[in-house]
């Protein structure tokens, strides 16, 4: 049920952002899309898993790369002090650009480290991603990312691995210098 709710939320956010972007494209005059979000950018990303953190983006033009470090504490049993640390890297290629937005396809790599008490777990996810960015000014972008990830789980204490698929996504804001 949670995955269905997450998918509905992601699709709703993408449709809303697309509608706002289409309206803004008709009503905002700009000198062209060539200068939107180029160069180095810093921002925040919030994953649907609950982790949120800092991102750095390099966008030289038609493609861009992101690096993300996110952190979250998970409330479970008192005394366990569970921690989630996310390290992620993503790359995107712009398929369509307007004066105030772009739509991109890409891929990403994510490593989740979960520590609960004395136990720890490392999950590695490789994902195929779609991203919509809407520029609220020439150097500030709101982004919504969604896709399908394949996770390799190497839980501590197990003599095996788990391979599974799941929906993945994030939302964020980036300021470009």
Commentary on this structure:
The structure is a single chain. By secondary structure, the chain is mostly beta strands. The protein has one domain: Porin, CATH 2.40.160. It has 1 helix and 8 strands. The longest helix has 26 residues. The N terminus is likely disordered.
Summarize the model shown.
This protein is mostly beta strands. The chain has one helix at 2-27; strands spanning 39-47, 52-59, 63-73, 83-97, 101-116, 119-137, 140-153, 162-176.
Uncertain segments:
1-8, 10-33
The CATH topology label is Porin
Biggest beta sheet summary: 8 strands, antiparallel, barrel
What's the structural domain tally?
Answer: 1
Rg from Cα: 18 Å
Mean pLDDT: 78
Key traits:
177 residues; mainly beta; eight-stranded antiparallel barrel; elongated
Write the layout of secondary structure elements.
Elements: H1 2-27, E1 39-47, E2 52-59, E3 63-73, E4 83-97, E5 101-116, E6 119-137, E7 140-153, E8 162-176
Antiparallel strand pairs: 1-2, 1-8, 2-3, 3-4, 4-5, 5-6, 6-7, 7-8
């Amino acid at each position: 049920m949670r995955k269905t709710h997450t998918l509905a939320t992601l699709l709703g956010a993408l449709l809303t952002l697309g509608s706002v972007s289409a309206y803004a494209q008709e009503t905002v005059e700009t000198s062209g899309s060539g200068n939107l979000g180029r160069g180095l950018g810093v921002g925040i990303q919030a994953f649907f898993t609950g982790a949120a953190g800092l991102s750095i983006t390099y966008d030289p033009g038609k493609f861009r790369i992101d690096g993300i470090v996110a952190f979250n504490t998970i409330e479970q049993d008192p005394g366990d002090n569970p921690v989630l640390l996310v390290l992620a890297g993503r790359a995107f290629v712009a398929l369509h650009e307007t004066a105030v937005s772009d739509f991109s396809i890409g891929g990403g790599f994510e490593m989740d480290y979960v520590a609960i008490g004395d136990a720890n777990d490392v999950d590695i996810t490789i994902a195929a991603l779609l991203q919509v960015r809407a520029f609220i000014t020439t150097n500030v972008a709101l982004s919504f990312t969604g896709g399908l990830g394949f996770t390799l789980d190497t839980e501590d204490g197990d003599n095996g691995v788990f391979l599974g698929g799941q929906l993945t996504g994030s939302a964020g804001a980036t300021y470009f210098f």
